[in-house]
Sequence to fold (209 residues):
Amino acid sequence: MLDLKVLTQAVGDLEEEDVMDLLNGFVETKPSEAEAQVAVVACQDGMAIVGDLFEKGEYFVGDLIFAGELLTEAINVLKPVLGNQENVVAGTILLGTVHGDLHDIGKNIFKSMSEAAGFEVIDLGIDVAPETFIKKAQECNPKIVGMSGVLTLAIDSMKETVAAIKAAGIDAKIIIGGNPVTTEACQYVGADRFTTNAAEGVKICQEWV
Ligand code: B12
Fold:
């Protein structure tokens, strides 16, 4: 059985070998999709430890970079057990990390889980300007637009992007995700829904289609 607290701490301590051993051992037990999602949340909690240590000055930017690589590697190990319904096309999600923000690990996790649930995801990448969201939305007519961001400034970028999308008359549901999003932020931004959990985000998108 996977000890989630040990996993969270190993991510927080940037103990790559321990994290990989724990996850490879976990995947060998053929866990359910729900169990795998819980492991993702444990890794995410580990990143919060990294963030706290960075704020305290105990970790530096190099540690953030390493943490980013570690989490990407960890999610790659979990991907095969995070679900797979590639033959079902549930709908299209246009996704991107908003302008000014270069963080993409959370976005990529949401992308993987959405694809596993049968969505087609058009990923615009990071630091995406409002005009880019609009141009692509006009081309591919998505049912859902997903915006990601973890910097505080991302909230204002999201607000700007939502306003531009609405002004362009694009008829899509909008979901925002990333560590700083809250009920208040969601109202401020003008999005339909928010989440800080990729699995919950997928459920919301499934409700919409
Ligand atoms: C790794 C990391 C980096 C890496 C990012 C690598 C990468 N490829 O993404 C690098 C080194 C590049 C980086 C750079 C910087 N970072 Co940084 N970083 C982090 C760290 C440690 C982890 C972020 C992360 O990946 N979390 C884990 C993921 C899985 O969580 P998540 O994003 O919330 O995603 C989950 C959900 O929210 C959801 N989700 C996410 N997006 C979406 C979208 C949709 C549509 C849905 C439905 C769901 C969803 O799904 C995910 C899984 O459940 C955080 C600390 C923290 N607590 O977050 C700091 C943090 C975000 N960084 C910070 C800072 C300050 C910086 C820098 C300014 C540092 C510097 N001096 O250069 C730069 C900024 C660069 C920029 N302009 O963006 C601060 C932000 C402070 C603030 N209030 O704005 C933090 C909070 C650290 C801290 N405590 O000080 N960083």
Remarks:
- The longest helix spans residues 33-55.
- The chain has two domains: 4-81, 91-208.
- The chain is about 55% helix and 10% strand.
- The beta strands are 91-97, 119-123, 144-148, 173-177, 193-195.
